[in-house]
Amino acid sequence: MQITLKVRRYDPERQDGAQTGVAYWQTYPLDAPDHFTVLDALIQVREEIDGSLGLRCSCRSAICGSCAMRINGHAGLACKTRISVLGGDGQADALREITVEPMANMPVIKDLITDMQPFWNKVRQVEPWLQTEGPLPEREHLVPDEAMEHLVGVMNCIMCGACVSDCTVLEAELKNGKPYDQTFIAPAALAKAYRFAADPRDAKQKERLKKLSEPTGIYDCTHCFECVQVCPKGVAPMERILKMREMAAEAGITNNTGARHAQAAEFTIKASGRNYELTFYPKSVGMFNLKELLPALPTGLALIRKAGAKMVLPHKAENVEKIQRIFKKVGKKNKRRP
Predict the structure, then answer these.
(1) Is the dihedral of CA 16, 19, 20, 23 positive or negative?
(2) Secondary structure (3-state) at 195
(3) DSSP classification of residue 256
(4) Neighbours of 79 (CB within 10 A)
(5) DSSP string of 84-120?
(6) Cβ distance 179 to 115 under 8 Å?
(7) What are the residue ranges in the chain where pLDDT is below 70?
(8) Calpha distance 39→314 (Å, rounded)
(9) Residue 194, Cβ neighbours under 10 Å: how many?
(10) Phi and psi dihedrals of 67, rounded to 5?
(11) How far apart are CA 312 and CA 326, in angstroms?
(12) 138, 225, 253, 320: which could join 248 in a potential S-S bond, CB 3.0 to 4.6 Å?
């Protein structure tokens, strides 16, 4: 199978004119067997064509997570991604161009090797260890299997960083000028936080959830599903984040912007079937929170001028009764839930 690897290269010592350390693209034509993975192809390039190509790999069995990189625009494990399935045309003899880049949202050390230190800093931030209270058990702390089954999926995380690479919140923070010190805790660390917050042996669940409900935590996720899509182990970090929002609400942790935002959305949609934009933001940050409201006033006035009466005057959606029946049905279901 004839393929072309288009690799995004970066050498901090390479000079391009007056600049040093400029990223550039380099292509490598290959005749690859059908069973080749992207990692196989990259290793062939390094061993037979260009020994200067930098990449990181180890187990080659989708266990260690070290070969995570962006392939055709999305993060994934190079050792798990077969070349034959890329391109979508299903023809083994078709010429395919495969783009390979280092993971995003992390500093690049060289070529496809990224600095994972920001990733580990965020994991440490959530205190990823059990915090128990009371006397230690004589032998071990036993819990029923059914109490731990829901944690099996999140414990499959191999810390590859794919979800962090494709997180759109972190990407937006980078575009706002933050040099890899983005404040959002990020999907992998939050999934790890759920692993301990939902563990029946942990005695600090409420403290964890309260801390995670602050800005940069569980309410900063925008539900883009990227972390769910790219996770090679099906951990689904976004689902864990949403579950912790439920846990926080059930624990009464609602005095924060994220919880008020959800309450404001529920109130306005339940009443009219639409978000009432004029009060949505003030209810989210606090009706008397002048520190947040005053800087947002010019944006609000611009929206009012653009949208006119539709934004100022509340108006109901068509068939609002159907929406209200959904709220009523969900409310009854939650009341029956133990």
Answers:
(1) negative
(2) helix
(3) S
(4) 25
(5) GGSSSS--TTS-EEEEEEPPSSS-EEETTEE--HHHH
(6) no
(7) 16-20, 87-95, 309-312, 314, 332-338
(8) 56
(9) 26
(10) -95, 25
(11) 26
(12) 253
The letter for the amino acid at 312 is V
CB 42 within 8 A of CB 79: no
Cα of first residue to Cα of last residue in the chain, in angstroms, is 57
Q: Cβ(151)–Cβ(195) under 8 Å? A: yes
One-letter amino acid of 245? R
| Residue owning tokens 């006397």 | 135
Rounded to 5 degrees, what angle do the CA atoms 107, 112, 113 make? 55
Q: What is the pLDDT of residue 338?
A: 43
122-158 residue pLDDT tens: 999 999 999 988 888 888 888 888 888 889 999 999 9
Cβ-based neighbour number of residue 142 at 10 Å: 7
pLDDT at 28: 96
pTM of whole model > 0.70? yes
Print burial letters for 274-288: b (CB count within 10 Å at least 16), e (below 16): eebbbeebbbbbeee
DSSP annotation of 106: S
Contact 57, 67 (CB under 8 A): yes
| Contact present, 36 and 94 (Cβ < 8 Å) | no
Alpha carbon of residue 51 to chain centroid: 34
Quickly tell me which residue has 């990189």 as its tokens.
Answer: 69
Helix 205-212 × helix 237-250 angle, to 10°: 110
Cβ–Cβ under 8 Å, residues 7 and 28: yes
